[in-house]
Amino acid sequence: MMALKWGIVSAGRISHDFVTAVQTYPATDHKIVAVGARYLKSAKEFAEAHDIPKAYEGYEQLAKDKEVDIVYLGNLNTQHFEVSKLMLEHGKHVLCEKPFTLNEKQTRGLVEFARQKKLFLMEAVWSRCFPAYKELKRQLDSGAIGDVLFASVHFGHAIQHVERLTALELGGGAILDLGVYMLQFQQFVFRGLRPIKIAVNGHLNNQNTDESAAAIITYPEGKMAVVSTSARVSLPNEGIVVGTKGTIRMPDFWCPTQLITPTKTYDYELPKTPVPFIHKNSAGLAFEAEEARQCIKSGKNESPHMPHHESIELAQLMDLLRKEIGVVFPQDFE
Questions:
Q1: Nearest CA-CA partner of 243 in 142, 106, 168, 324
Q2: What is the rounded distance in angstroms from the CA atom of residue 334 to the CA atom of residue 104?
Q3: Spatial strand order in the sheet of 246-251
Q4: pLDDT at residue 164 is higher than 80
Q5: Which tens digits make up the pLDDT trace of 175-184?
Q6: Whether 281 contacts 252, CB under 8 Å
Q7: pLDDT value at 169 more than 80
């Protein structure tokens, strides 16, 4: 397979980090060929800063660009569904930032559409592609800590000042932005199990989006997850898994470079680049780009690390948490 040719949707902060991370790979594997943004000026500036040959205003031309194989979506939550669909419609594979969409209905629709089109589609839960997650899976599968009965994960940053995180019309709230990470962690630990009971609590801000949320998720056979998220304070941001024979800890569980098991601590290097990143450990975004390339190369339409049914499950969980706390998007009625 020749280099995977990327188009980038949105010239924002996460797109900057994604492109910078992908450019740590040789151009024979990954090539960024175009960027589309709401305003031509920002697209051009972004293209210039990252040495990208083409800049488009809006996303229509990007979707029609014959050179683009796959599109990375780093735009607003409210745009994910429509723009992903537009890209799939024009035969592009899609790696879409989390949360995939605003709710379960949209997520199912997107997955179904990608299947019809026989195209690769993945929710960019980048955490799953980090080496620490692969090691965690090996540890759990091998029974290293016995029967896993408990997972706890807390994820919080003081980000109430960021409008896209608080405004209802922008698909704001801690659950969709941060909660998706804590939920995917416990989902990863208890893979394949369905919750039997979920107790939820939380607080709304003055814009009626959630500033904090917590849940106790009960599984069969005495297994349980305790998760919480906050957009008002920084939390201990660590994933903990407890089994009958010991405990595994994953500091910075959403972008981990370390895994602490009862017998050994694993440390992992991130790709190196001279360009500074905006967000923590963003060099790890390279892992999900490579995962997409490997899947497409071997003819897979979904990633085994973040399969479609797990994206649907995550959407169901986020819908449930929002409903219990009282966060309603206009799109929920569509």
A1: 142
A2: 12
A3: 197-204, 210-218, 224-230, 148-156, 238-243, 246-251, 258-260, 265-267
A4: no
A5: 999 999 999 9
A6: yes
A7: yes
CATH architecture of 4-127: 3-Layer(aba) Sandwich (3.40)
Work out the widest C-alpha separation in the chain, in whole angstroms: 57
Cβ-Cβ contacts under 8 Å for 172 (sequence gap 6 or more):
77, 163, 164, 165, 166, 207, 209
User: How many CA atoms does the CB half-sphere of 312 hold within 13 Å?
Assistant: 12
Residue the block writes with tokens 């949320």? 213
Q: Which residue has the tokens 């990470």?
A: 181
- Segment (H or E) for 35: strand 30-37
- CA 315 from centroid of its chain's CA atoms: 12
- Cβ atoms of 202 and 321 closer than 8 Å: yes
Candidates 153, 158, 152, 159; CA nearest to 234 is 158
- pTM greater than 0.85: yes
Classified by CATH at the fold level, domain 131-267+307-333 comes out as: Dihydrodipicolinate Reductase; domain 2 (3.30.360)
Give CA 69 to chain center in angstroms. Answer: 20
Mapped onto helix, strand or coil, the DSSP state of residue 56 is: strand
Q: What is the pLDDT of residues 211-250, one digit of tens each?
A: 999 999 999 999 999 999 999 999 999 999 999 999 999 9
CB 100 within 8 A of CB 80: yes
Which of 306, 292, 205 minimizes the C-alpha distance to 7? 292
CA proximity to 183, closest of 305, 325, 317: 317
160-174 CB burial, b ≥16 within 10 A, e <16: beeeebbbbebbbbb
Q: Parse the chain into domains and list their residue ranges.
A: 4-127, 131-267+307-333
The Cβ of residue 122 has, within 10 Å, a number of other Cβ atoms equal to 27
